[in-house]
Amino acid sequence: MPDSVVRTAPVPGVRSVLRVPGMRAVFVAHAVSMVGTLAAEVALSILIFQRTGSALWSALVLVCSFLPYAVGGTILSSLADRFRPRRVLVYCDLLSAVCVAAMLIPGMPTLGLLGLLLVTGFVAPLFQGARAASLSHLLDGDLFPVGRSLLRTISQTAVVTGFAVGSVLVAAVGPLWLLAVDACSFVISAALIGYCTPAAPAGDPDGERTLQAMVKGSAEGLQHLRTNRALRQLVLLTWAVPGFSSVGDGLAVAYTAEAGSAATAAGWLFTGYAIGTVVGELVVARLSPDARRRLITPLAFGSQIPLIGFFLGPSVVVAAALLALSGAGFACNQGIDPLILAATAPGYRGRLFTVQTSGLMTVQGVGVALSGALGTQLHPGVVIGATGLVGAPVVLLLARRR
Fold first, then answer.
1. Is the Cβ–Cβ distance between 70 and 160 less than 8 Å?
2. How far apart are the C-alpha atoms of 10 and 7, rounded to whole Å?
């Protein structure tokens, strides 16, 4: 009699996620809106610079893209639990479309353009929190981290293509047409989510929906995070890894100048980090859930070590390779996400993921700003190397404490 064959269950990966009804529409919508948003940031920066001739006003576009995360992601986070996620996602997309379309009004003052951008920034963390809460309902525990990984992969790919496409299209058709395309991208995203994805239940459907109750509910979400030690350590780790490693992006232009290369060579550094993140996410997504959990500490620690190599003043190509290795460590989130999901009560998931997203963007923005300030006083390579030297023990401590 032949020996029995032991069959192991297939490792849940990207294909398994895409086979879930509605998931393809979620990812296509994310890709469309991400590329449109990034290209529009380029267009808006150029448009404001053309009107004012001021580099400061142009730089405020990035400030207005980051700043609202800290406020909107905390004050409005309970919206992600009070209403069905699909409804929140569609309304956020439509509100963003209206704001971007309003930028096309002839004679819109510069402050008006920045104000509209601030509104879209307030909406962004709420949208991302509701989407994560929706994925937690539509995907099981093993598929959920792969789904979030795929979203991050699309985001990093969009960072490269969005800015590149935006620069080309601004030169070809002008910034106003590109803003119009961005408004359309939000409408397309809303349609895909509204008509092609399954509905998920609200995390806290019985909660009051007045403004006062919303703010109170958001505060309760922050309290839930503060009092849950295990959850707090996990969220801090998801902030610390990119918070330190993204410094290389913030000093890319300054570092290429220090290395004696043309400013355009900074694109190698931006692309290196993004490509490393994409490759890391795709490779780790093929591993088993147990393997992803075991790799949390090595990947988190490994995201910081390559930065120390900047003390040696590597060439731009070698520096891009170091940032690629650093970006690959971001895949540690695939092991962290299911732990966060298990540690969070269902009624708080929308708030938790909204706060996590807003905190992530805030930490990255602050990190880039501080490194930029230090880069004016010290050699950029020294600042990046020092960041890795500080970041390595910090993320190692957080990873071990989890």
1. no
2. 9
